[in-house]
Amino acid sequence: DFFEYVNGKWLASFQIPADKSRFGVFDELRDKSEVDVHAILTEVAEASPAPGTTEQKVGDLYASWMDEATIESRGLEPLQARLDEIAGVSDTAALQRMFGTVDYAAPFSISILPDPEDTTRYTISIDQAGLGMPDRDYYISEGEQFDTYRTAYEAYVTRIFALIGDDAAAANAETVIDLEKQIAELHWSRERSRDLDESYNPMTRQELETLVPNIDWSIVLGEAGVANIDTLVVGETTAIRDAAKLVDTVPLET
Question: How far separated are the first and last CA of the chain, in Å rounded?
């Protein structure tokens, strides 16, 4: 057993840090890098470099990021334009414009990645999305562990609503999580998503529009800045198709 010969003592004696699920030399290097970068930023921020220099810009940016008192004093003001934009959505066309931006969630994601079948070119990828927790299991799997996750997530979403001054925070959190559960029930499992035979589905723009007809792809892709793309890759076909149907059946307010 050569593996045991080389690694046995380490496996028997090493204690993985309590805040980590894994630990090895690359994790140690990553932790050291964070400490080193932190030291550099702190030094720059405290050195009062000359105005206009890169050091001054980096130091000011870091100092402003760490200035919790100022951040807290501004309250919701930095968010207000986004909250107003959300409140101003009055129809599904406006909702779908949000689907196409990088700032808002949608029942599908749009990304750019190397084409798995031809890595010399990039392609647009459409994949299942729309969940706040990591994947479908967190919403539908049974057991004490998943019950704990769901309870904690409900408290988190409720807290987010309360922080923006929502008087019905608990009820609205329940509404959001119920919608996410509906999406989760349509999602493919991680194992199925990783099966390239199933999840690699190149198609034309017209084929995408046929597969998911209730999404106006000219709006969504236009907002994403890829309106002129003629071919793309679709991942979890049925999950994307069926989750998109919720746009027509779930109340717009939800």
Answer: 58
